[in-house]
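User: what does the whole thing look like in 3D?
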Amino acid sequence: MLTINFLRENTKLAIERLKVKNFDAQSIITVILGLDQQRRDIQTESDSLQAEMNQLSKEIGNLFKQGKQTEANEAKEKTTSLKDKIKDLTTRLDEVNSELNSLIVQLPNVPHESVPAGKTADDNLEVRTGGAIPVLTDEALPHWDLAAKYNLIDFELGNKLTGSGFPVYIGQGARLQRALINFFLDENLKAGYTEYLPPFMVNEDSGFGTGQLPDKEGQMYHVGLDNFYLIPTAEVPVTNIFRDVVLNESDFPVKCTAYTPCFRREAGSYGKDVRGLNRLHQFDKVEIVQLRKPDDSYLALEEMVSHVEAIVKKLGLPYRIIKLCGGDMSFTSALTYDFEVFSAAQKRWLEVSSVSNFESFQANRLKLRYRNNETKKTILAHTLNGSSLALPRIVASLLENNQTAEGIKIPEVLVPYTGFSLIK
RNA sequence: GGAGAGAUGGCAGAGCGGUUUAAUGCGGCGGUCUUGAAAACCGUUGUACCGAGAGGUACCGGGGGUUCGAAUCCCUCUCUCUCCGCCA
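Assistant: Here's the predicted 3D structure for the full assembly of 424 residues, as structure tokens:
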């Protein structure tokens, strides 16, 4: 969430920038600033009344000690009206605060100045492309047929065990998963990230910290008996490691990576978008998370984009990097780059990574701060994250693009991990 | 699942109705001494909000209550630990 101080000091800027996200903030911000003023007025009054009350209580204590019962009882009577006033003010303050809060959480993050305006994915900006799109024969198969042909993934079996969207990987298919996870983690380690293996379920506080709760709870699986949520991405447990933490300047940059399965309900999805590996309820992903000081978070974003790009290049997949327009960006992001790889038999671009700078939007919810060396003040850190990478669509693209008459070729960098160079 | 104990500042740990602006120790920071360091000694040491400032208010796991006054008493929730049971 945005901070009230930011809104107070940058009212015009916030309204202008939010237009890029197609969000008309004019009236809501006006109401917010009005409530903020009310809040401060009430608190000033309430504080001074409470000071008076504290003073009075102290005096009553002293009177009792001196045995002056009558005076003490007289003084006690004076507190009654004070108490009522304070109670009244406190109630009002709570009301104003909760109203204020409920409005602020409705405001999306303010996009970075470089974010293009636009409504849909069509308005996104292609930053650059790489890799060659393979030319396949007419007999080329989509990955779900390849998966069946080579017995790599059994989608039907997943239906039996759980339900649709929970595939079972088998043999070389399973080993390819394990290889990719290790490869991605190793690449991240080499780039200076520390590996974590977090819980795959989180509590409510964690869900709130990264912004999944309260609004998007329909997207997560909920374990009702214990009130836990299955994580939709490693971003949730990893970023929440730093909830309620005050870092030192010397701790930066904080760079974390984690492999986790990801669970998404994806209610309402259907059709060709969800065919095969295109969209699943459970999938594997390796995530990178960085914490930065505000002054170099955009440098870090570019660094993360280059890092993910290097991995995709090593796999030899045709890719494009896209800067999302305001309308296509997530609620919490200030700037997002998407990575897509081309899946040559489906002839579709598939999103395999989304790299974002959230600035202090998440940090404010998380109370994730650092102490400034000079001023000794605490300042909200910036959080960033990205996939490096999501497995299913990488697998889809690898299978489709690398199919030959002899079998499916495994990219050279993966062979040490798979132990085989051809799926047949 | 059963029984018991507990939750206090960065950490350890007192306090159990009114000089608590939370003792004390450790750690951290600043200083004295020293060629330098250690030791010793002295000082200092949280967060948030309101206020131009002086200053004020709130916070002792969360929420509610009793009281003129709550870290302290009551209710309730959550979590942690110990033992037993089950178990990879």
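In plain terms: Residues 39-41, 43-44, 46-48, 50-51, 53-54, 56-62, 64-65, 72-73, 75-80, 82-83, 246, 378 of chain A lie near RNA strand B (CB under 10 Å from a C1'). Chain A has a mean pLDDT of 91.
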